[in-house]
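Structure tokens please, single chain.
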Amino acid sequence: MFDSIGWGEIAVLALAALFIFGPERLPDLAKEAASGLKRIRSAVTGVREQVNESLGDEFSDLRDLDLRKYHPRTFIRTQLLGDEEDGPARPTGATGATAATVVAAQVRDRAVPPPFDIDAT
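Here you go.
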């Protein structure tokens, strides 16, 4: 969530908090923030337990559901490359350019890491 915040930004935020709230109030504010985070975590844990109890054994498949495989990038990669056992995925109703892209993606050497566009992520 806060992957883009570095030490420089944290230092700026700490200095801003120091100037805004003053050195006397900062320890109390930190304690209140910590207790607020604990309450949020306990509430999330409680909600998770209630959902698990209400689902019962009938929906045990949902507990083991891995939502990461439904990430758009992973889903598209799976659909384009298909499973190795099933053979290559064939596009239905695809144009020539799309079909060529799919074929090029399937021919790629598995030992070579895929191209990574840092601007696209």
